[in-house]
Amino acid sequence: MAKFVFNMPDIGEGIAEAEIVQWHKKVGDMVKEDEEFVDMMTDKATVPMESPVDGKILEIAGEEGDMVSIGSMLVVIEVEGEVPEDVAEENDAAAEAAPAPSPKADEVEERIEVENSDASDADDAMAADPSPPPAPAPTPAPEPEPAPAPSSKVLATPAVRKRAKDLGVDLAQVKPSEEGRIRHGDLDQFLSYNSGYGAAAKTREDEEKKVIGMRRRIAENMAASKRNIPHFSYVEECDVTDLEILRAQLNDARGEKPKLTILPLLITAICKTLPDFPMINARYDDEAGVVTRHGAVNMGMAAQTDAGLMVPVIKNAHAKNLWQLANEIARLADAARNGTAKKDDMEGGTLTVTSLGPLGGVATTPVINRPEVAIIGPNRIIERPMYVTGPDGVERIEKRKLMNISISCDHRVVDGWDAASFVQALKKLLEKPALILVD
Question: Is 222 exposed, middle or buried (0-12, 13-18, 19+ CB in 10 A)?
Fold first, then answer.
């Protein structure tokens, strides 16, 4: 028998550590070669780890939510005979390729040493003064709480008792009817008086849930975005009546093609608008002080999943037609929701669209997907009467479909005038949708 220490491999450029999301094996379990035994999450995607050998798991690096550095021990496996030479060499290379600690870590250690030194100096100063500290004032003994008075027998039907128990109500506090028996009406009156709502929800116990995996990654990314980026938002109202008519016509003639939502039309309009506003389709490396204005549009698409918000990326969205976009949107949304999205599906975004669909509200102020510099949020389509000037020049009131477009931008890179001008240009396309289909 031999012990094989499987080191955390390098699973992405620039990745220094990964989070344990879920163990599929525990200490004492047998694992087969190429069998997945743990899911690890980076800031890009969740990556399953496969065992390079057959054997028995003797030790694991930690529990779910813990971080494991690249090159450090992930799992110890007991194997029969010798570990294959190629496996051992690859494993050793992973340990040697572990990234060096960042200067920030050294600064933290230096600060801790200074703080410890200051504390030691304070301890020495206290030791130099032998006078004892003043004695604390005596604390008065707490008065004993009065014992609760025994309650008299409460008359109520079993149904009323069960309902009161479910609601957390002490029937001794409820005033009974004239005959002395508590009825549902008496309980309703008590609840109405004490809660103001005529009903009371059953008290639930507090629940603690460890923030790990995707939820923790979202929290870290959103905090970093708001901490580092000076956001500003701009909102404009668009008349999408004609856009919705065009969408209905395209769907009626789609044949075997996928049904179009408004999103492919919106993405196409955005891609047609961006060449005149290259500062919107950009990424900002604030550490290097470099803004990269991208020619290709890799459109991030925020998707709500059971694990939290994920942003798969439609690569080269500018080169896809409406039906290709619809197919890719459906593929990426399904992959995000069922957990099959690949690493490449989650990387390389240059601009993001986020939509809550029918829950979109009147306006949103979305948080930028760092290091991108802008995020666009279409809001809910509503029908409302508005003044419209007809071909004859006569103004009249019509029922129109309206949608607000929100954009949040990084003010270090995008000026307010640029953001407003971009949205106004986008609005023109959405309100004259035939132009969206013109090359």
Answer: middle
108 falls in which pLDDT band (50, 70, 90)?
A: very low
Reported as a pLDDT band with limits 50, 70 and 90, residue 104 is very low
pLDDT for res 324: 96
Quick: pLDDT tens for 343-365. 899 999 999 999 877 677 888 99
**CA 97 and chain centroid, separation:** 31
Angle at 261 between CA 386 and CA 323, to 5 degrees: 130
Whether 184 is a known active-site residue: answer: no
Average pLDDT over residues 359-381: 92
Integer Cα distance of 318 and 320 in angstroms: 6
Catalytic residue (choose from 54, 415, 418, 439): 415
| Beta-carbon contacts of residue 87 (< 8 Å; ≥ 6 apart) | 4, 52, 53
Q: Which amino acid is it at 117? A: S
Active site residue 415: yes
Q: pLDDT tier at 140 (50, 70, 90 boundaries)?
A: low
How many angstroms separate the CA atoms of 125 and 117, rounded? Answer: 12
Give the distance, in angstroms, between the CA of residue 113 and the centroid of all CA atoms in the same chain.
36
How far from the centroid of its chain's Cα atoms is residue 7's Cα?
29
* Other C-beta atoms lying within 10 Å of the C-beta of residue 360: 19
Q: Residues 186, 188, 411, 418: which is the catalytic one? A: 411
**Residue type for 285, please?**
D
CB atoms within 10 A of CB 47: 19
Query: Would you list the DSSP string of 205-229?
Result: PP------HHHHHHHHHHHHHHHH-
Q: At what angle do helices 416-431 and 241-252 cross, to 10 degrees?
A: 50
